Structure formats: structure tokens, C-alpha cells
Amino acid sequence: MLKSLLILLSISLSTFAVMAQSDALTVATFNIRYDNPNDAPDTWENRKDIVANLILFHGFDIFGIQEGLFHQVNDLDKRLPNHRFVGVGRDDGGEKGEFSAIFYDHQQFQVLNSGTFWLAPETDHPNKGWDAALPRICSWAKMVAIGSGEHFYVFNTHFDHRGVEARKQSARVILEKIREINTGSLPVILTGDFNVGQETETYEQLRTAEGMKDSFDAAETVYANNGTTNSFDTSKSTDRIIDHIFVSEDIEVRKYGILTDTYHGRFPSDHFPVMAVISW
């Protein structure tokens, strides 16, 4: 009898542990590097399977990419059978230019609404803002978790690499748009390559925004032994983090990690993906 009770208790505890993890969601941001033939041998043709397998292995439920051209987005779409994506090219609002696409596991989540706005004084059409070198965008999606019915928003962006004022103003625009779009005060996930480190005013602008926090600060477990860029050079390293995942105050962050995976002494991209395990 005692042995039977112990077995039942063990099964119950195991079931509880599984149930406790079932509400966990793995989100990520990943600058996959645009398809540049001058990157040889680190061309997209050599990296696309590696990038897709990295995503599958680490189990990204929802993730934002940066720098993906239309064919790169489609390459990932083909290699991630359970994922769908939303987003448009920044140059024409269609297929031209880099995407800040949001990929999601369509077996777990449904997109209820989505869109893209430009990081510029005029947010509704392709244009450059302030001192930016290039047009910059933020794509977003309102989603519902199929199992729990939880509604939430995901925003994904890529700030300009040159314009200091553009980055500052881009942060302001995104925070304003989040308030404008998220009228129901739902949970928010904001991912991206912000091209700003944790020492900058623009980063502080985002980290200290009302109702928001950096998953790096909030995580129960942090695995960040490197910065987030590598320039495809394994002989150098940095501690500077410019790719971030911000979340609403009402989201619990269980884990945060910068994934420095390699293959045959090479990197899958010139940025490392940043991953967070969160729950409502």
C-alpha cells in the first residue's frame, strides 16, 4: 500500500511540474543578417539551414527577426513547418527591403490583427525619419493563445544604425504606438535590434517606460556571458547588448539568455539571438 501511494504521489508531482511549465512561452529576437554576397563564406545560402535548426532546437514559440529580405523570410517559413509570420518590407510596405517579421507557432497562437508602422514623423508609409540612414519599421501583431485564451501584443523592430536622434525618436514613437494600439492594456512583448546598449539614454527610455521592463533585469535566471554582436569573427567578443526583449510589468520572466551557438567554428549570424522564457 505504501509503495502504491508513493508511486501515485510521484506521478502527481510529475504531472504538476508539467502543468506548471505549460504556460511558459519562449520568445526571442534574432537579427539574421541580410543576404550579402560579400559575407562569404558566411553567406545566407550557407547559414539558412543552421539558423532554422537553431530556432527549432531552442523551441522559439514567438520570435522577431531583423534584416530578413523577402526570400530569407520565405526560406525560414519553409523550414519552420509549425510557424507562420506577419510583416512587410520596409522599402515599399510589400516585399521590398528588409523585414522586421514576427514568426509564431500557429498551433499555439492565432493572429487577430497585425500591421506595420514606420519609425518617422509620418508613420503610415515608407519614409526615413530624422537623421536615420535608412527607412526603419516596427511590425506588430495582436495574438491569442489557443489553449488559454490569453490575448497579448507582440511588437518587433530594428532601429537605425547611424542616427542617434532617430533612435531616440524611434523609441518615443514605438511607446506612443503601443499605447495607441493596445487600448485594452493587454500584455506586451517588444523585441528588436535597437542598436543601443544598456548604457544609453535611448535604452533607459525603453527600460523605464511606464508598465515596461527589460527581460534581462527581470529574469529569475540569466545566461548572458557575451554581448549580442560578433561580426562573424570568433576571435573577438563584446559585452555590449544591443538586441533586447522588453515586456509588460505583468509578465513573469523565468529565463533570459544570449545564445552563442556555433557550427564548425562559425556563427549562424553576425548577431546572437536573445531568448526569454516568460509566463503570464
Task: Write a structural description.
The chain is of the alpha+beta class and 280 residues long. It has one domain: Endonuclease/exonuclease/phosphatase (Deoxyribonuclease I, Chain A, 4-Layer Sandwich), CATH 3.60.10.10. It contains 6 helices and 13 strands. It has a 7-stranded mixed sheet. It has a 6-stranded mixed sheet with strand order 5-6-7-8-11-9. Helix 2 crosses helix 3 and helix 4 runs parallel beside helix 5. The longest helix is centred in the first third of the chain and has 20 residues. The radius of gyration is 19 Å and the shape is globular. The protein starts with a helix and ends with a strand. The N terminus is likely disordered.
Q: How much of the residues is beta strand, in percent?
A: 25-35%
Span from first to last CA? 40 Å
Q: What is the CATH-assigned architecture?
A: 4-Layer Sandwich
Assigned CATH superfamily: Endonuclease/exonuclease/phosphatase
Number of strands: 13
CATH topology: Deoxyribonuclease I, Chain A
* Assigned CATH class: Alpha Beta
Order of helices and strands: HEHEHEEEEEHEHEHEEEE
Q: Largest sheet, described in full?
A: 7 strands, mixed
Count of helical regions:
6
Low-confidence stretches: 2-21
What structural category do the secondary elements indicate?
A: alpha+beta
Quick structural gist:
By secondary structure, this protein is of the alpha+beta class. It is 26% helix and 28% strand.
Per-chain topology:
Elements: H1 2-21, E1 25-31, H2 44-58, E2 62-66, H3 70-79, E3 83-86, E4 102-105, E5 109-118, E6 137-145, E7 151-158, H4 164-181, E8 188-193, H5 201-207, E9 212-214, H6 215-218, E10 221-223, E11 243-248, E12 252-258, E13 274-279
Parallel strand pairs: 1-2, 7-8, 10-12
Antiparallel strand pairs: 1-13, 2-4, 3-4, 5-6, 6-7, 8-11, 9-11, 12-13
Helix pairs in contact: 2-3, 4-5
